Amino acid sequence: MKRIVLALFSLVFLVGFLAACAGESSGDGKGKGKGDSSDPITLYSPETPDLTKELAAKFEELYGQKVNVHYAGTNVLVNQMMAEKGNPQADVWYGGGGLLPFESAVDKGIITKYIPESAEDWEVVENGIKMKHQDGYYVGTELFVLGFAYNTDLVTEEEAPKTWEDLLDPKWEGKIQFPNPAASGTATLMVLSHMMQYGEEAGWEYFQKLADQSNSIPDSGSAPTKAVAMGEAHIAVGFDFMAYEHKAKGETVDFVVPDKTPILVNPATLVEGAPNPEGGKKFMDFMLGKEAQQILANWYHIPINKEVESKTPLNIDSIKENAVDLDIDWVNENYDRIRNEWKSKIN
């Protein structure tokens, strides 16, 4: 009798164990590393935390799916994704002050290919602006223009500089600020763009003169524009949205798009080995849709979706003639070298 009871007990246990195993491997897509439409999405972004939280909240409102936002500086996030390659924690990476960090990330093996259907027909380069990666590793979500902020109490619209050469006018001596290219990607872009157009020798000569014109060269990309808003500088080099954010607050700041200047997309990309790749793709699709693009526009970024109206005087059509055709391969090859040389060449 004891043997019969023991046998029945063993049989019940075995059936239960096999059923549990079947449930775990049922192929429902909810296992680790597979993701599911209901699983949370993790977003890595160096953009303004309030902006990314607003994007996350809108996505959750539309799709009922949680988005966890992780904020840090671009270099910190890239290093974190490198450290996590064996066990990725992020699904999507959005933003980095333009496309340069994404270009360098391709060879690091931390991002993978995905282009939303709405961007499949885009040209890789349109009007001198690289809109997406040629092999599909990232897609632009908005546009940034490198140009000049100026204090409208100290500088009239007529006398504000219109070209990069205008910054060397003696009347601006001691009245200019621009970010430190050894620390700021914004300023590194400025230097590389000039050198591509005029050569390195002429480029170093120009930037020594520009440094002599400045009253400060802070490490932060946004600090010069803030200095203009506070009256600590007349002219600042920075991205367009920085100036328009101050202007929207009622501060005496306006912006000039130089005759020829870098214009960059700010991309989004899918993280290689993402725990929820389907959710990541869904969020990237959302970033190009009207709801997300309207949020970007409300933050004074230039929307890439032409159905959404810019909140600033700038839009894709109005700025395309000003774009410098950047050699992205040359930028990637020389980015670190030029940043390091700045420290020794510019006094």
UniProtKB/TrEMBL annotation:
An MF annotation (GO) of this entry: thiamine pyrophosphate binding
One cellular component term from this protein's GO annotations in UniProt: outer membrane-bounded periplasmic space
One GO BP: thiamine transport
Chain intervals with Basic and acidic residues compositional bias: 27-37
Signal sequence region: 1-22
Residue ranges, annotated region (Disordered): 25-44
Keywords: Signal
PANTHER family: ABC TRANSPORTER SUBSTRATE-BINDING PROTEIN, THIAMINE-BINDING PERIPLASMIC PROTEIN-RELATED
Protein name: ABC transporter substrate-binding protein
Source organism of this protein record: Ornithinibacillus bavariensis
